[in-house]
Amino acid sequence: MKGMKNKYGLPEKELDSIRARDSVCVYCHKTMKKAGSEEFRGDWSTIEHLNHLPPWNNISTIAICCFSCNASRGAKRITDWFKGSYCLDKGINLNTVTTPVKDYVKKHESN
User: Does pTM top 0.85 for this prediction?
Assistant: First the structure.
């Protein structure tokens, strides 16, 4: 049902609008596949919590990214993750990510 909430307590209707906004990975810009498909798992779309610590039920800190980027980032702050080999190898940084990520970092992680 569309009004139902998922395991994070996020309304599906709002998630649908975020999925429409984030049609490619917010970090690496890869075209993603539906989670659970027979495609390579690293290409699956996943809910990304831009905030690295709970609570994770805030729709304003949600984006959609590929499974590979989500797994690589884990619980790291985005700015710390950018310094790691995964991002360095792929050229992922504050200048290359999508606007929702840039806005989040500027608001919550810039010193």
Answer: yes
Bridge partners (DSSP) of residue 5 are: 11
Instruction: Evaluate whether residue 44 is within a structural domain.
Output: yes
Is residue 27 included in any domain, yes or no? yes
Give pLDDT tens digits along the chain (111 positions). 445 667 778 888 999 999 999 999 999 999 998 887 777 889 999 999 999 888 878 888 999 999 999 999 999 999 999 999 999 999 999 999 999 999 999 999 986
Q: Report yes or no on 4 lying in a domain.
A: no
Region of residue 98 (left: phi > 0; alpha: psi -120 to 50; beta: else)? beta
Overall size of the chain counted in residues: 111
Residue at 85 is within a domain: yes
Instruction: Report the domain count for the chain.
Output: 1
